Amino acid sequence: MKQIAFASDFDNTLFFGKEAKPFHEEDLMAIKAFKEKGGLFGVCTGRSESGVLFPSKGFLDYDFRILATGSYLLDKEGKCFYQNPFSLGEATLLYENLCRYPSFSLVVNTGKSLFSSTSSFDGHPPRKEEERLKRTIRGFSLGCLKEENAAERKKKLEGSLSFLHAFQNKTFLDIVKRGNSKGEGRKRRKEHLCLDVRAGRGDSFNDIPLIEEASPSYTFLSSPKEVQAKADLVLPTLSSALHDLRNLFS
After folding, report:
1. What pLDDT score was predicted for residue 121?
2. What is the predicted pLDDT for the residue at 130?
3. Pairing state between β 164-169 and 40-44
4. Burial, 71: exposed, middle or buried (Cβ in 10 Å; 0-12, 13-18, 19+)?
5. Of 18, 109, 154, 175, which one has the fewest beta carbons inside 10 Å?
6. What pLDDT score does 104 carry?
7. pLDDT of residue 122
8. What is the pLDDT of residue 131?
9. What is the mean pLDDT of each run of 10 residues along the chain (250 residues)?
10. Pairing between strand 217-219 and 4-8?
């Protein structure tokens, strides 16, 4: 039997946090059927480990987790098989650069959890400012006022700091060490598992590396046209993408 894995973006693809039922029942049923046939289902996200497990508790168990935009990869048991964090010098330089824009929100991603000095995340309270760089940093998230602000910051950051990549998700930037992306994380997961089929789905600009690496790849009807142009199929739901994979098990 072919070894088939499906990597899904988390926010607004699998998890709809603003809705009364953030996980759609038809998606959960399709994931269960997919796994019962031997398929592997996991997430490929800019979130941290606790950022995935905290809202997923009681709903889903994952066969793999590609976290912090490909910077931190975990297997089913939660064992790390790849990580590529910032060095302390890189994290310090980047942090100082990002702090020049006080009107923007800044969140640190250790891969295991998110934290900031102003907001609570996934059950973790705000942390003191001086604690930020005392941990291994695998990513930063910069919340901008408008999409054009995010696009401008991405261009400036990648033009001035050669050790990073910045991926835009609407008004947010997910910033990781160069060489990391959702696509690279998906590729490393394929090599780790010796997969025959590596399907994937995402909905925004930061998912383009995932969509380009996955085969087959999917996105939503509501996704930006630039994202739709990269996908093999544009389907309305996650469950419809999983149903499309059924003939690959034969």
Report:
1. 81
2. 60
3. unpaired
4. buried
5. 18
6. 78
7. 74
8. 67
9. 91 96 97 94 96 96 97 96 96 90 84 84 72 85 92 95 95 96 88 83 95 96 95 96 83
10. unpaired
- Looking at residue 105, its pLDDT comes to 86
Whole-angstrom distance, CA of residue 43 vs CA of residue 41: 7
Distance between CA atoms of residues 72 and 29, nearest Å: 28
DSSP per-residue string spanning the chain: ---EEEEE-SBTTTB-TTSSSSS-HHHHHHHHHHHHTT-EEEEE-SS-HHHHHHHHTTT---SEEEEGGGTEEEETTS-EEEE-PPPHHHHHHHHHHHTT-TTSEEEEE-SS-EE-SS--BTTBPP--GGGGGGS---EEEEE-SSHHHHHHHHHHHHHH-TTEEEEEETTEEEEEETT--HHHHHHHHHHHHT-SEEEEE--SGGGHHHHHHSBSEEE-TTS-HHHHTTSSEE-S-HHHHHHHTGGGG-
* pLDDT computed for residue 119 by the predictor: 79
> For the chain, what's the residue count?
250
Output the six-digit token pair for 125: 């309270």
